[in-house]
Design goal:
0% strand
Length: 211
């Protein structure tokens, strides 16, 4: 039952806003960690542990997306409903930015699940699949800046700068740095000079004078 107090204090709306911001922050950290792993900036010894953190961050971020969408679906003021938070383009308010958030959530789910089918699909397809994290970050940032009331005007620009700067830096580092495991071709030593058969002058005279 919706009461006046519930409408005056939209707890679900506050929860949706908080969960959405946390979800995007976790997605950003997971993306940065993945880039750092691909460039070996954090070393080789902790790769397995950091990959586990990368997976945990993605699943935790998706859990925040679920909380974000559930709170919106149950919000008595917005009245989205579950269809509107699951299907892009079905939201009754700001359909395009909301659809961007829904697409971000589905991409995060696909990336989180990919960790469990990595051996089945192979390392190379798994790595190619993770390029979708850039799309999730970009579309998620568009969603964050165009819905809600937390990231408007200057606050939105500051938020975008703080989130984007380390990602852009790591992308540049990933492009400029050599790929992990790439080795220089070993230099081939020059072939040794052929052995000379010059004779000593005394030996040369002995060969010319018959015995």
């Amino acid at each position: 039952m919706i009461t006046a107090a519930t409408t005056a204090v939209p707890v679900t709306w506050l929860l949706a806003r908080a969960a959405g911001l946390v979800a995007f922050a976790l997605l950003t950290v997971a993306l940065m960690l993945g880039l750092a792993l691909s460039t070996r900036l954090l070393g080789n010894k902790r790769g397995k542990m950091l990959l586990g953190w990368h997976q945990t961050l993605m699943w935790t971020g998706f859990a925040m997306v679920v909380l974000h969408g559930t709170a919106l679906a149950l919000d008595p003021v917005m009245r989205f409903g579950f269809v509107a938070v699951l299907v892009p383009g079905m939201a009754p308010w700001r359909a395009v930015p909301v659809a961007a958030g829904i697409v971000t959530g589905w991409i995060m789910l696909a990336l989180a699940v990919s960790f469990h089918v990595r051996r089945r699909i192979g390392q190379r397809p798994w790595r190619l699949m993770h390029y979708a994290s850039f799309a999730a970050f970009s579309v998620g940032l568009y969603h964050a800046l165009n819905v809600g009331t937390d990231l408007v005007a200057t606050r939105g620009l500051i938020f975008a700068g703080i989130m984007s700067a380390p990602v852009v830096w790591l992308v540049v580092a990933r492009i400029l740095m050599p790929r992990p495991g790439a080795r220089k071709a070993p230099s081939v030593p020059a072939p040794p000079a052929p052995a000379t058969t010059e004779q000593h002058p005394s030996e040369e005279r002995q060969t010319l004078v018959p015995a």
